[in-house]
Amino acid sequence: MSEVNYIRHLNGVLRKFSENGKISSSHRSLYLAFFELWNQKHFPKKIMVNSKQVMSLAKIRSRTTYHKLLRELKMWGYLQYHPSSSPKNGSLVELFRFCTPPDQKMDRTCSVSEQVPVQKMVSFNKHNNKHIINSFKQTCPENEQVVIAYFKSENRSILEAKSFYFFYESIGWKLNGEKPITNWKACARNWMKKADEIKNDQRLKAPAQIKDRLKSGRFKNYGEPL
Description:
Blueprint: H1 6-19, H2 25-40, E1 47-49, H3 51-58, H4 63-75, E2 79-82, E3 91-95, H5 112-115, H6 126-137, H7 144-153, H8 158-170, E4 174-175, E5 179-180, H9 184-204
Antiparallel strand pairs: 1-3, 2-3, 4-5
């Protein structure tokens, strides 16, 4: 398989997302979780995945939702899924290539025209309007490294930082697909909080230890099988 260009592929798939009216933020989050694992393994043809790990990265709690989103991504031509017949082995996922032409450059700035409709204003308000637009631009992180540095300062992993960055980068740094994010660091702290809540829920739902049947009490029934 020829070498995958991280930025070109990401540009290509985000463009395809924008052209698909059925894609939701959950679809994007799941795809980006697969993409992150694919990147960690240096872009092989297929990757073996663990559903629990992917669900944690994508912030998906329901296994039913996970499989529904996975089937739809497969149906729409974003990836190929090969479920495992053995519980000891993970399933295989093959991500299709969406590389953009080599001469196309990535625009790292937030598009104000796409996110905030700017009305025509009278001349004496032009300066104030320009200040508002510039302040909105500053609410988006300058690049991925800025986000990674912030997550490190909060003692969080690089993987979590990248998942956060690429998720919100894919949806134009908006909340619920409409409202522009006015403080990305506050949004990042909320992301971390939800991640911790998911881990705590999983810990609470863990099966209790199996009772040791070899230990007997005063009223042990020796007719009961071990």
